[in-house]
Amino acid sequence: MYLDVLSTLREGVSEPTLIMRKMMVSWSLLKDVLCALVSVGFIECRINNNGRRKRGYYITSKGEEFLHIFENKEIRDLLKSVNVATS
Fold it and tell me: Structure pTM?
């Protein structure tokens, strides 16, 4: 879920309503994920003053690095092998 939010933000979707629609999740669940990602510095919340004062969420360089690591095929394969070995 966290990786999906980061990927969605990287695609340029920043408004909470649009993120919810794209991911098909409830506001309650999305809010918890957004708060967690903000707290670790992977995303930031900004108020867009385009006349409507809408809140937007944006991926930070730290979030980009995290996402890049988990998109790395070798890392994914390693995590899968650890998961298989522990089950």
Answer: 0.77
